[in-house]
Design a protein that fits this description.
Blueprint (H helix, E strand, L loop, with lengths): L2 H8 L11 H11 L6 H25 L1
């Protein structure tokens, strides 16, 4: 038995490690396709974070 025959007989991998569905593509793009955000995108993110913090604060005050 040669090395090549032994190596091929043990291989059961089909060459695809992950399914390429939409969620996988989106997450891959978020990680590896880094682009600089525009001022508008940065401002929108800051606004959304501030709104979420205010809503959380108001909910905590309402519970008391």
């Amino acid at each position: 038995m040669t090395k090549k025959q032994n190596k091929e007989s043990g291989r059961k991998w089909d060459g695809r490690s992950r399914p390429a569905d939409d969620v996988y593509r989106k997450r891959w793009n978020e990680i590896f396709n880094k682009k600089e955000k525009t001022l508008s995108e940065l401002l929108r993110e800051g606004f959304d974070e501030e709104q979420a913090a205010l809503e959380k604060e108001e909910a905590e005050e309402g519970d008391q």
